[in-house]
Design brief:
Blueprint lengths: L7 H18 L5 E5 L5 H9 L4 E6 L4 H7 L12 E2 L11 E7 L7 H14 E11 L1 E2 L7 H13 L6 E2 H8 L4 E9 L3 E8 L4
Parallel strand pairs: 1-2, 1-4, 2-3, 4-5, 6-7
Antiparallel strand pairs: 5-9, 8-9
Helix pairs in contact: 1-2
Keywords: Methyltransferase, Transferase
GO molecular function: methyltransferase activity
Protein name: SAM-dependent methyltransferase protein
Length: 201
């Protein structure tokens, strides 16, 4: 079962397996944009595991101050000042080799998920990658018990939230020239999904 919103202990637990998987897929990345960086747990760890990357963290305007405060003691060149990013509005120009988000798709409404994909497609370099970690559903397959309970709890809190079907995300990516290239099983019934932008786009 995925962590509940705002659970920093879960971010601490999951950072190592996430980056164990990401290291291979971002071996040649130089510029990465993180969407929904929260308290910067993953951003801080990213510069240890991917020292060749400039890791640009970002957060929705309503949570931006928390992220800035979390990184106030850091001044590394590869961990620049966070950005305020509303995925439905203007994105930074980029270009980026990768866009990463952990536990973001299920707390956004579907319009925001669409904006996440379209925004990522715009700012990614050719052959760049969109990497999303979290709990997901698979069409026609019953969810794991923990994920089913988590999905129900999210929808009780806000009917616009909820776990997303992998196939629905693939459908968002297709017209944007984003094709899924990896589906990696992670602890606690989570997954790391990676879409790659066409090399000629």
């Amino acid at each position: 079962m995925s962590a509940r919103i705002g659970d920093n202990s879960a971010a601490q637990r999951n950072k190592e397996p996430i980056f164990d998987a990401l290291v291979e897929h971002l071996a040649h990345a130089r510029d990465v944009l993180e969407v929904g960086a929260g308290d910067a747990t993953h951003a801080r760890y990213a510069v240890e595991r991917l020292p060749h990357c400039v890791w640009q963290s970002s957060e929705a305007p309503g949570h931006y101050r928390r992220l800035v405060a979390a990184l106030a003691d850091r001044s590394e060149q590869n961990l620049p000042r966070p950005l305020a990013l509303d995925v439905r509005a203007a994105w930074p120009a980029g270009p980026y080799d990768a866009v990463f988000g952990a536990n973001v798709a299920h707390i956004m409404d579907w319009t925001a998920v669409e904006a996440l994909f379209s925004g990522a497609a715009r700012v990614l370099r050719p052959a760049g990658r969109l990497c999303l970690y979290g709990p997901f559903l698979r069409r026609g397959k019953p969810p794991e018990t923990g994920n089913a309970a988590f999905d129900a709890a999210l929808r009780d809190r806000d009917p616009a939230m909820g776990l997303r079907e992998i196939e629905a995300l693939d459908a968002l990516g297709e017209p944007l020239c984003l094709s899924r290239v990896a589906d990696i099983a992670m602890p606690s019934d989570n997954r790391l999904l990676i879409w790659q932008k066409a090399a000629d786009r």
